[in-house]
Amino acid sequence: MLAALHYNENSNRQQAVTQAGNPQWRISFPKARKGSAVAAAVRVSATFAYVDELLHAVVDLREQLSSYTKAKANVQHYQHANPPPVAASVLRTSKQDVVSAHVSRFSVSCKEVQQEQ
Questions:
Q1: S-S: 84 plus which of 30, 43, 88, 96, CB 3.0-4.6 Å?
Q2: What is the pLDDT of residue 90?
Q3: Which domain holds residue 61?
Q4: How far apart are CA 24 and CA 15, in angstroms?
């Protein structure tokens, strides 16, 4: 979850500029390009404002829920509000049926597939 918060905050960082106002670039020489130069934009430094927001939320919850019993009741309330996982609503096929369908799909020759089309 922290990685998602960090990404959401820093995904649209602007390109860094020099003191003269020109965009900054870095040059790399990747093996995939066989050593030819590739320019990439230098981004401004990442921010971590979401950490302060999390800390404020924790302190606020601690002030609202002064005991362990109140906190536990609050967690149980929100746990029941979550919907069941999507996978729980899908009818499960037996493993043997899935494997046999996979094997039979790949046992068909190319000529038979072309004739069906």
A1: 88
A2: 81
A3: 1-10+24-83
A4: 7
Q: Hey, what amino acid is at 35?
A: G
Q: Is residue 114 part of a domain?
A: no
Q: Are 42 and 15 in contact (CB under 8 A)?
A: yes
pLDDT per residue as tens digits for the range 68-99: 888 888 888 777 767 778 888 888 888 888 88
Single out the residue of 35, 41, 37, 38 nearest to residue 16, CA to CA. Answer: 41
CA-angle at 44, arms to 12 and 49, nearest 5°: 70
Backbone angles phi, psi at 28, to 5 degrees: -130, 160
Q: Does the residue 32 lie in any domain?
A: yes
Number of domains in the chain: 1
Name the pTM for this structure.
0.51
Q: Which residues in the chain come in under a pLDDT of 70?
A: 81, 105-117
Q: Establish if 72 belongs to a structural domain.
A: yes
Q: What are phi and psi of 24, to 5 degrees?
A: -90, 140
